[in-house]
Design a protein that fits this description.
With 402 residues, the protein is mainly alpha-helical. It contains 16 helices and 6 strands.
Length: 402
C-alpha cells in the first residue's frame, strides 16, 4: 500500500498569485492616475468671483472698443487679437502671478508678435515657421523674464495669418496691450488688488516696522524655489504669505489642542511658606528642580520660589562675605540664616494655569517678566503639576520633528 504524499503547491500557483496582485496594484495605480484629472476646488469666495468676472468683461470690452476705433482710423489690419482675452484673465484673475505682471504682458506680447512677423518673412515653410516662431518667442520671454503664455499665440498667429505679415500688426498689438494694462491697473487698484504687487523686500520691511517680522527670508524662498525647479504661478510675496498661513495652521493643528495636563510634571514638589531657606534649597537639590511652588494648608498655590531667589537672597546679605561662605550658608547644618522663611523670598502672587488650558495659553505667561515656571491647578485650585519653559520647548521641538 503506497502512501500519498501531501499535496505541494504547483510551480504555476505562485506566479499566478503574483500576477493577480500585480493586476490589482495596476488597477489601483490607474484609478489614482485618473483621479488627478478631477479639478481641485477654487479657494475663492463669491465676491472674488464677481470681481474677476466684472474685471475681465470690462477689460475685454474697453480694449475691444478702443481697438475697434483705432482700427477704423488706421485700416487695414487686425484691430484686435483673441489672445488678449487670455491676457485679461491673467491680469484680472491672477494679478499677483509672475505671468500677469505688466512687463510680462507687455514684453511677452509685443516681443512675441515681433518675432512672429520676422519669422513669417524669413521662413517660407508654414509648419517650420510656426515651430520656429513659437520656440524663439518662448526662449526670448524666458531670457528677458517676461514669460506670458498668450504671447506664444501672438507669435503663432503672425505666421499663420497673412494679414499679420506687416508692421501694422505690431502697432495693433502694441495699442491693445497698452489699453489692457491701463484698464487692468485701474480696475485692480479700485477693487483692492495691488497691481503690480509689492515686492518681497517691501512687504518684509513693512511687516518688520509693525513688529511682525516674517520667519522667512529671501534666501529661504530662493532655496525653496530652486528645489522646486519649475515656474510657479504665484508671486514671491504671496508665496511667503501662504507659507506663513500654512505654518500657522499646522502649528495650531498640532499644538492648538494640546492641553497642560499632557505635558505637566506631576506629582509636583512643593513647599510651605513657613519652611526655612535652607530647607527649600535642600529640597531643590534633592529633587533636581529649579523652582518650588509655595502652597498653604489647602494645597492652594500662594507663590513660587526659585534657585535664583535663594541665591540672590543669600548673596545680598553681606558685602564682605566670600562666595564660598555664602554658598555654605545654604547647607542646612551650616546656614546662619535658617530663621528666614520661604515666604519672605517667594514671588507672590503667582500666575497659575488650569489642567484643561491649552499649552499655547502659556506662551504669553512665559514671555512676561522672565517667568520660567507655571504651576498647574485643578478645578478646586489645588496644585497638581508644574510646567517649565523647557517642557514647552521640548514639546514644540518634538512636534516640528514629526
Amino acid at each position: 500500500m503506497t502512501s500519498v504524499p501531501p499535496s505541494q503547491p504547483s510551480a504555476a500557483a505562485a506566479p499566478a498569485s503574483e500576477v493577480a496582485q500585480a493586476s490589482v496594484s495596476s488597477r489601483l495605480s490607474v484609478a489614482d492616475w485618473l483621479r488627478r484629472f478631477w479639478p481641485s476646488p477654487l479657494s475663492i469666495d463669491r465676491k472674488e468671483r464677481v470681481r474677476m468676472l466684472g474685471g475681465i468683461v470690462l477689460c475685454v470690452g474697453m480694449t475691444a472698443a478702443m481697438a475697434h476705433l483705432w482700427g477704423l482710423l488706421h485700416p487695414p489690419g487686425i484691430w484686435m487679437v483673441a489672445s488678449l482675452a487670455a491676457s485679461s484673465v491673467l491680469v484680472i484673475g491672477l494679478p499677483s502671478s509672475p505671468l500677469a505682471q505688466p512687463w510680462s504682458v507687455f514684453g511677452g506680447s509685443v516681443l512675441s508678435a515681433t518675432i512672429g512677423v520676422l519669422v513669417a518673412q524669413l521662413v517660407p515653410q508654414l509648419v517650420v515657421g510656426a515651430v520656429v516662431a513659437v520656440g524663439v518667442a518662448v526662449l526670448v520671454m524666458l531670457l528677458l523674464r517676461c514669460l506670458h503664455p498668450p504671447g506664444a499665440s501672438l507669435a503663432l498667429l503672425a505666421v499663420l495669418e497673412p494679414a499679420t505679415h506687416t508692421g501694422r500688426y505690431l502697432g495693433f498689438v502694441l495699442f491693445d496691450v497698452v489699453v489692457l494694462l491701463i484698464v487692468g491697473i485701474l480696475y485692480n487698484r479700485l477693487t483692492g488688488r495691488a497691481y503690480p504687487p509689492a515686492k518681497l523686500a517691501e512687504t518684509a520691511s513693512k511687516a518688520a516696522s509693525h513688529g511682525k517680522p516674517s520667519p522667512f527670508t529671501e534666501a529661504d524662498l530662493d532655496a525653496a524655489l530652486k528645489s522646486y525647479n519649475g515656474v510657479i504661478d504665484i508671486s514671491r510675496s504671496d508665496l511667503e504669505r501662504l507659507l506663513q498661513h500654512a505654518a500657522k495652521a499646522a502649528f495650531q493643528r498640532t499644538m492648538g489642542d494640546l492641553r497642560c495636563d499632557a505635558i505637566m510634571s506631576s506629582p509636583v514638589h512643593a513647599i510651605n511658606e513657613s519652611a526655612s531657606l535652607a530647607e527649600g534649597w535642600a529640597r531643590m537639590q534633592q529633587h533636581a528642580v529649579k523652582a518650588l511652588p509655595v502652597i498653604d494648608d489647602s494645597q492652594s498655590v500662594i507663590g513660587i520660589v526659585t534657585t535664583t531667589d535663594l541665591l540672590h537672597q543669600q548673596f545680598a546679605q553681606e558685602q564682605g562675605e566670600g562666595l564660598g561662605k555664602k554658598l555654605r550658608a545654604l547647607i542646612p547644618w551650616r546656614g546662619a540664616k535658617q530663621a528666614q522663611t520661604i515666604g519672605s523670598v517667594m514671588s507672590a502672587p503667582v500666575q497659575v494655569a488650569r489642567m484643561e488650558q491649552h499649552v499655547m495659553d502659556l506662551v504669553p505667561m512665559f514671555s512676561a517678566k522672565g517667568r520660567r515656571h507655571v504651576p498647574i491647578v485643578n478645578d478646586e485650585n489645588r496644585l497638581v503639576g508644574i510646567i517649565s519653559q523647557t517642557d514647552v520647548i521640548k514639546t514644540l521641538a518634538g512636534t516640528l520633528a514629526t
